Amino acid sequence: TTDRFVAVMYNNNNQVIPGNTAAVSNELPFKGLNQFGEKFLSRFQVSQMRNSLLQNLTFIDSPGILSGTKQINRGYDFGRVIRWFVERSDLVLLLFDSHKLDISDEFKLAIRTLAGHEDKVRIVLNKCDQISQQELMRV
């Protein structure tokens, strides 16, 4: 499933840690995620690898924002989970697909979740090299 949050971080050994384990580990900063329940924790994992780039930072890859008929009941409070990560982040990259001009309810929720943390947000216009200049101006 693509409905998964993945924390990518440094470790001397390459390993994948399931969300349930990560959320109770004293060595990882994810204890607060227990509040979101089993459904969320089953869709969270930590991927650790030996890469010097990761020694001083952690990436959190969130699942894609769903639109229209693709919207599903995730089984956990997506907005609260996003908020939890945003509050602990130094930088948030919000990728916006230049091919999709509509903003779904879930995308609106994600944007509202960023309120109060606007200084951390950078918007990336994804796939903008694949559209004409006229279409880019509309976006």
What would you note in describing this structure?
The protein has 139 residues and is of the alpha/beta class. It has 5 helices and 6 strands, in the order E-E-H-H-E-E-H-E-H-E-H. The chain has helices spanning 19-22, 37-41, 78-87, 105-113, 133-138, and strands at residues 5-10, 15-18, 44-49, 59-61, 92-97, 121-126. The strands form 2 sheets. A 4-stranded mixed β-sheet has the order 2-3-1-4. A two-stranded parallel ribbon has the order 5-6. Helix 3 (78-87) packs parallel to helix 4 (105-113). The longest helix is centred in the middle third of the chain and has 10 residues, at 78-87. It is globular, with a radius of gyration of 16 Å. The mean pLDDT is 86.
Q: What is the compact description of this entry?
A:
This protein is of the alpha/beta class and 139 residues long. Helix content is 24%, strand content 22%. The chain has helices spanning 19-22, 37-41, 78-87, 105-113, 133-138, and strands spanning 5-10, 15-18, 44-49, 59-61, 92-97, 121-126.
